[in-house]
Amino acid sequence: MKKFLFFLVFYILSEAIISEPLCIETKNHCIKCHPTNNLCLKCDKEIYTPDPNGGCEYFKNCIMGNNFCSECEEKDNLCKECENGFFPDEYGGCSYTNNCKISYRGECLECKEDYILIGQKDISKEGIRVCKSLVSEEYKNCKTIDEDIGKCVQCNDGYYLNEYDKKCTKTKYCKESKYGVCQRCIYDYYLDKSLDECKLKTDYFKHCRESIDGKTCSVCEDNYFFDDDNLCTVVKYCSKSKTPYECEECNSGYYLTEYRESCTPEINCHYGSKELGLCTVCKENYYIDISDGKCKSNTEDNEFKNCYKANRVCTQCINEYYIGEDNMCSLTDHCAYSEEGQCLECSNEYFLDLDNQCVNVENCIHSLGGHCLECKDNYYYNMRNNTCLIGEGDFEHCKSGYDDWICQECKNDFYLNQSDSLCYSNEEKDNFYKCARTKIGEDICVECINGYFLGEKDNKCTKIEGCAISENENKCIECSENYCLDAKIGTCGINDKIVDDQKKFYYKCNRTNIEGNACEECLNGYSPNENGLCINSEHCEERQGDKCIKCSSSYCLNNDFECVAAYYGNCVECNNVLDFDYCSRCEDGYELNKYNICVEIEEDIN
Prior knowledge:
This protein is mostly beta strands. It is built from 1 helix and 68 strands. The strands form 31 sheets. The chain has a 4-stranded mixed β-sheet with strand order 20-19-21-22, with no helix packed on it. The longest helix has 18 residues, at 2-19. The chain is flat.
């Protein structure tokens, strides 16, 4: 009996050793083991889950629509593509920030190599923590980075930290730098570019911002201008000074006073020429007399009433008026725009006839050049007598034609059979799907609707992806909404999100340049920057060339000269971090605290 019990206990223990998993805390990501069955109860990170062998394994369970994933990879069950605004990480999840290695429910837990995770997890909202490159210009020559605010706080030996942009440069007293080179010095110092040094301002360099040779001033401070001795002087609204107190030329929209001591706004002038010193465009209710460059009233009852431009006599009238035989502006009935006595565009529901008069075609909703282009619903355009007639019977789906027996063009979703001049549906998926016109005497499609091309072999209409109007089967000339036309190859790429890093210039772009490497025409509210990328220009208040230099209230200017909503108040300039923007400069009277928030400057009571 004792022998039997001994073998029974030995068998149970051996089976337990062979079959039961072995759990060890702090090993295989396990931090807590079960006291009886030796399985892992809890893993060290949320992205791991206990496995049946006593350790922890990464929880890979990619499901489309789950955890912000839009497309799964079949071979390893990782997420291949995420929803708009999210990025795949190396462990199969989706993160709010790109270059993330491990994420959980969109929150990045660890960045890829050579990237640092920036942002405060405990006080931030979702998406504010981002992965930033350690080899970027922002962290060049930086020794210590504050991970909460994403700013350099200590530079490498031999480098100085700028007070303004928190970047490292070899130049002491530097305020702004780019790629380690100083661009602007702090107050009371000017930049000597010949030595790459910030020097204390002397009387000669007073109000100077930059010197190329270290001997003379090259760039004055804002609102200061050069006089004949190359000294920086301040005459408000003056573009060129003769002495510190005498202006030689004013900014556009201003004129010199009698003794040249100040610049005064040009009376009733909207825009003027600095070179000529004359007004070129007047304000509303005034016309420009180009003989003397002055703005004069066009509301008085004289020969210049309703005049826009004159040279002793009126040469151009305001909109809706034209020049009559007496050189005075007369009203053209229903004219929306006229020039030099000719009406060029009529108001709604009117169009120009052959006598250059605005006439109305009943039931016409769009016209051009003396012809109705589109009639109201249930009407077609009769080309013979220029009228819109009720579309009945065989003409129910006709858009335009001669009388009531020859249709020339059908309405949308119908094609013209030129054998019987009637319209048939092109919505059915047969030989005439998306066809616009057939061949006379044959049931063969010879023309497709916009956005479709005709196959050479089967004479069927096929769509070009994203194309609205195509030149041939290989070249698109106008794209559909949410697509950008690549002018080089004639294809359409998605422009409502960045799908290819090599073609970021498609984002918010309507049409690229002929080289196909930069955006040439952006969507409304956006404009191309110097790199050919479309940036938000809707809230820009002041521009310098093609760059925005000042944003409207509640918006701040980021590194791409783009106006974005200020995440915190009283901010005028900010650094772009994906969809969030950290403030880098505050309004006057405010300063940045350690969290990059603008707070009011406290007065020193001592």
